[in-house]
């Protein structure tokens, strides 16, 4: 039986199912404590595998393209937050203060790794540069995101200082990542051979965090706090923010004279926000019932960016290859 085209992918459907499950059967008491421990273990394993998968050769291959990386970083960690702040007069009344805080958190996050590289490859962009840029964004985001969260949301990670938040993230996320890099020489080939089913570690850790976050939020009455019109407004807001960043990525890529392949990389690496990094990081930075509300914009934005970028990547993939592209020359 052919899958209907209007249906989202399986992970999106599972994510929606988890939210529904948490809405009707939220974890509480000792069950919630157990889920918390299981989630922390899954997140550590997730970042260990990210470290084991990341090839040093891929980093070296794309590291020299500093102008491209600088522009991608500026889009990810400067333009996004500026858009979030500039649109406050529109966003705050439309979606309410809590969801607006979630949008600001989204704007502070690093870019995705897997989907940015996948879309760049599909669109025939500069894949080595995409690998380096996306991986570096994810790594530096461990330090930059807590700083931006402190500036934008005045949040210090469980009531501590920004340094405490960075240290906590370093222990829970960076340390497993570094351990994965060290262990790569022994487990790298095994991880590469089993990457098809290891993706379920990525997805499983996200689902655990989402279930735990929404369980606590439901117990505190999240669906009574957020009206339906605010949820509809949130979809519109996510579309507006994504459209502005896509436009800026395209205009700046041309203005700075990048080649077509580089402009594709800038577009797909500079417009993404990572659900895989953002959800675990929120687990560290925020506590209590606010977590479910804060990651809701990220969950919606993630699905919207995937659908929009899939269409864009296919359009680029179907373009006629020019002589300059075939010879690796820079477009004027």
TrEMBL record:
UniProt keyword annotation of Membrane present: yes
InterPro entries in the record: Na+/solute_symporter_sf, Put_Na-Bile_cotransptr
Keyword field contains Amino-acid biosynthesis: no
Membrane-spanning parts: 7-25, 31-49, 70-87, 99-119, 131-153, 165-183, 204-226, 232-253, 274-300
Keywords: Membrane, Transmembrane, Transmembrane helix
GO cellular component: plasma membrane
PANTHER family: SODIUM_BILE ACID COTRANSPORTER 7, SOLUTE CARRIER FAMILY 10 MEMBER 7
Name of this chain's protein: Bile acid:sodium symporter
């Amino acid at each position: 039986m052919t899958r209907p085209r209007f249906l989202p992918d399986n992970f999106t459907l599972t994510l929606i199912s988890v939210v529904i499950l948490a809405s009707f059967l939220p974890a509480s008491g000792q069950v919630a404590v157990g889920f918390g421990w299981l989630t922390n273990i899954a997140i550590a394993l997730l970042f260990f595998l990210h470290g084991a998968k990341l090839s040093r050769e891929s980093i070296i291959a794309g590291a020299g393209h500093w102008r491209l990386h600088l522009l991608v970083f500026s889009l990810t960690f400067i333009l996004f937050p500026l858009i979030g702040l500039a649109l406050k007069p529109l966003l705050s009344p439309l979606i309410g203060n809590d969801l607006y805080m979630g949008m600001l958190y989204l704007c502070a996050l690093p870019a995705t790794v897997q989907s940015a590289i996948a879309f760049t490859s599909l669109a025939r962009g500069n894949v080595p540069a995409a690998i380096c840029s996306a991986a570096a964004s994810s790594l530096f985001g461990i330090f930059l995101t807590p700083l931006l969260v402190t500036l934008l949301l005045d949040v210090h990670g469980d009531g501590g200082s920004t340094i405490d938040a960075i240290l906590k993230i370093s222990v829970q996320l960076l340390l497993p990542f570094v351990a994965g890099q060290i262990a790569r020489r022994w487990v790298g080939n095994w991880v590469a051979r089993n990457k098809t089913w290891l993706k379920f570690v990525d997805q499983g850790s996200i689902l655990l965090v989402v279930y735990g976050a929404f369980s606590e939020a439901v117990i505190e009455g999240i669906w009574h706090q957020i009206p339906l019109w605010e949820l509809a407004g949130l979809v519109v807001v996510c579309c507006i923010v994504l459209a502005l960043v896509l436009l800026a990525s395209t205009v700046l890529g041309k203005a700075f004279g990048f080649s077509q392949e580089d402009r594709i990389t800038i577009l797909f690496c500079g417009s993404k926000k990572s659900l895989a990094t953002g959800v675990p990081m929120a687990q560290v930075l925020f506590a209590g019932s606010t977590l479910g509300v804060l990651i809701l914009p990220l969950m919606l934005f993630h699905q919207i960016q995937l659908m929009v970028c899939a269409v864009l990547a296919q359009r680029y993939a179907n373009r006629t290859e020019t002589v300059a592209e075939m010879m690796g020359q820079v477009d004027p």
